């Protein structure tokens, strides 16, 4: 599904003055991926949201006085084991990896997600822009994952890290994602586009693969080759063993 959130501005594909950025959001289920995305794009908070459908949000966002034609791919997660579609690896210019401070399991999934993104980007993009966002900081009374664990993971892979609350910390959410977009812009200015990303229209067609043929209920999520995270997790010291 594709959602346009224009906020009174022109749609991204109509604004030749805009820079561009494509961000994929990944993580375990129920960690607040959609809540953070919607908080950043609309400044609104949605307390409960569940979807088994991948969503693309498009908006023109102001960053440092310039406008960024932003596309955010919110990857649904119905399994504890995250998989990264190869098409998403080719499409995304930056990654937002989300886990909840209230769940060790979501942190372990986040670790595997960072490992998989780094491995999948490989030599073509040895240091992909990745922001690790630990959500639900407002729930300190049921915290499981120490802040130090998230920072250790970020330091190991050269990622940015922040703890936020989608419910209460709108400025921190905005500033952190703005920083990720700045990183994308800086990398675009430093490197030549040797490896072309998938066209937006092709990605949209794959994500909106709503077949007109057949009858009855169908699973309309796109069928894509997968980069499996299976047993990639190694004991690195920052993963708590239960």
Any descriptors?
Rossmann fold, seven-stranded mixed sheet, 242 residues, Small_GTP-bd, disordered C terminus, two-stranded antiparallel sheet, alpha/beta, globular, single chain
Write a structural description.
Helix content is 31%, strand content 22%. With 242 residues, it is an alpha/beta fold. The chain is built from 6 helices and 9 strands. The strands form 2 sheets. A 7-stranded mixed beta sheet has the order 1-3-4-2-6-7-8, sandwiched between helices. A two-stranded antiparallel sheet has the order 5-9. Strand 3 and strand 4 form a beta hairpin. The chain has helices at residues 33-42, 86-91, 104-121, 147-157, 170-190, 200-207, and strands spanning 2-4, 19-27, 55-63, 66-74, 83-85, 94-100, 130-135, 160-163, 226-228. It has a single domain, classed as P-loop containing nucleotide triphosphate hydrolases (Rossmann fold). The radius of gyration is 17 Å and the shape is globular.
CATH topology: Rossmann fold
Following the backbone from N to C, one meets helices and strands in this order, namely EEHEEEHEHEHEHHE
CATH class: Alpha Beta
Tally of DSSP helical segments:
6
Beta-strand share of residues? 15-25%
Count of domain modules? 1
User: How does the helix and strand content classify structurally?
Assistant: alpha/beta
Helix proportion of residues, in percent?
25-40%
The major beta sheet can be summarized as:
7 strands, mixed
Which strand order do you get reading across the main beta sheet?
1-3-4-2-6-7-8
Shape: globular
The Rg value, from CA coordinates, equals 17 Å
What is the number of strand segments?
Answer: 9
Low-confidence stretches: 5-17, 192-242
The fourth-level CATH homologous superfamily is P-loop containing nucleotide triphosphate hydrolases
Secondary-structure arrangement, i.e. CATH architecture = 3-Layer(aba) Sandwich
Q: Would you tell me the overall average pLDDT?
A: 76
Q: Termini distance? A: 38 Å
């Amino acid at each position: 599904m594709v959602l346009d959130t224009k906020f009174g501005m022109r749609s991204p594909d109509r604004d030749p003055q805009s820079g561009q950025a494509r961000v994929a959001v990944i993580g375990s289920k129920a960690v607040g991926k959609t809540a953070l995305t919607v908080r950043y794009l609309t400044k609104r908070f949605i307390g409960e949201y569940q979807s088994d459908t991948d969503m693309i949000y498009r908006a023109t966002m102001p960053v440092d006085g310039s406008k960024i034609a932003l596309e955010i791919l919110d990857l649904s997660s119905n399994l504890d084991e995250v998989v990264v579609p190869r098409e998403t690896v080719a499409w995304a210019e930056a990654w937002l990896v989300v886990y909840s401070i209230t769940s060790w399991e979501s942190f372990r999934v986040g670790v595997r997600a960072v490992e998989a993104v780094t491995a999948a980007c490989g030599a073509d993009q040895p240091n992909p822009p990745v922001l690790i966002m630990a959500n639900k900081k407002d729930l300190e009374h049921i915290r499981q994952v120490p802040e130090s664990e998230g920072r250790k993971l970020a330091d190991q892979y050269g990622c940015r890290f922040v703890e936020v609350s989608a419910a209460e910390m709108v400025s921190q959410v905005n500033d952190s994602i703005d920083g990720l977009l700045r990183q994308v812009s800086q990398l675009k200015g430093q490197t030549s586009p040797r490896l072309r990303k998938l066209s937006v229209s092709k990605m949209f067609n794959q994500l909106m693969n709503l077949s007109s043929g057949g009858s009855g209920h169908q699973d309309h999520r796109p069928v894509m080759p997968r980069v499996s995270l299976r047993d990639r997790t190694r004991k690195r010291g920052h993963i708590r063993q239960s």
